[in-house]
Amino acid sequence: MSSVPLAEPASVSESENTPAVSVILIVRNGADFIADALRSIYLSDLQPLEILVIDGGSDDATVSIAQQFPKVRICPQISHGIPNAYNEGIAQAQGDFIAFISHDDEWMPHKLDRQLAALQAHPQFAYSLGLVEHFLHSGSAVPEGFRQELLVAARPGWIMEALVARRELFMSVGGFDASFAVGEDSDWFARTLDAGFTPMMLPEVLVRKRVHDRNSSLLNPDINHLLLRALRRSIQRKRTGKAIDE
Amino acid sequence: MEQKGIFKVNSPYIVSELIDGELVIMNLKSGNYYSVRDTGVFLWSALEKGCSQDEMLALLTDVYNGDIPSMIGQSLLFIKSLLDNDLVSQAMVAQGPNTWAADQIMGQPLLDKFTSPPVLEVFSDMQDLLLLDPIHDIAEQGWPVAKPSRPAE
């Protein structure tokens, strides 16, 4: 594990004209990687207002590592599951914009800066995404079923880690559906599209996603089951013309 | 031994599930997803059970009342759309007797009228999302705290 920063960076570009951004990191037992994720935020050109670490009951050093970083607020998770962890974070966020990061991924230094600037310049967009590149964690084998081609080229990042959204978007389309043990992000993105919100997709790599031996993939039948369920909901919304599930 | 032509689902990149009578199919190569209802579900179910095209059509016309040439024509178009969308491939297997009765194909009550032709509805609005393999951390005990039960299967 590399060293934890102890002082504020010198080149923080916060100003009264910069909207406040809350970063949400949900985690359980992420001690192996969380310092790298938080450091990537700390090294961002634009600093967030706060970093909410929603901890789902870690029994490793996750919390003690996270507490050493500036602007981190540890929020023990009250409810259960990944979707509710996101929802708790959104409910507690103070920023006008909300961004997300996984404990095992890394932001590029310009991520927040670029996405905030894009959303401020184009108020018709409610959220921004960017490209994501995958990298194989040192010493890890490629997980079974993982698409090797993702390690070669960056792809449009329809994932939480690439998302920066205006707070109001969550009021419009709602939070994450707790009936999805996984795949809640796909369901949420489908709902935003069906509600007429298209993303501002920035054509540059903003997130580096770590591939390691605890990842699972679309070829996992449980994920497929839930993804198919999310797709059917989207089909039904399209047929009925109702943007929001009843 | 004689052989017969059947159709095989192009797994693992094609995954599907019947949800409340509607078949939802994902193509993880193209990022398209599909809906199939009514008589199309019957044909897909027969296809999955290893029926040949002739056997599927015989079962279909056995179950459904309607204009037979029309039913066959629309069914052939449906099968072609499955092939064109790379959802299934043709394969040859040893000829064996078809042991499936029409009422066993779907495992649920069937309408007796050919009320709606089999149609493959294609959706392409989430290609980038489906082509980006979403990676989720799943610890052995579930994450962050295992839900007391899985979503309804």
From TrEMBL, chain A:
Any one Pfam family match given in the protein's UniProt record, by short name: Glycos_transf_2
Protein name: Glycosyltransferase family 2 protein
Domain Glycosyltransferase 2-like: 22-124
MF annotations from Gene Ontology: transferase activity
Coiled-coil spans in chain: none
Keywords: Transferase
SUPFAM superfamilies noted in UniProt: Nucleotide-diphospho-sugar transferases
Automatic annotation (TrEMBL), chain B:
Source domain of life: Bacteria
Alphabetical list of InterPro entries matching this protein: PQQD
Any Pfam family matching the protein: PqqD
Name the UniProt record assigns to this protein: Pyrroloquinoline quinone biosynthesis protein PqqD
Source organism (scientific name): Methylovulum psychrotolerans
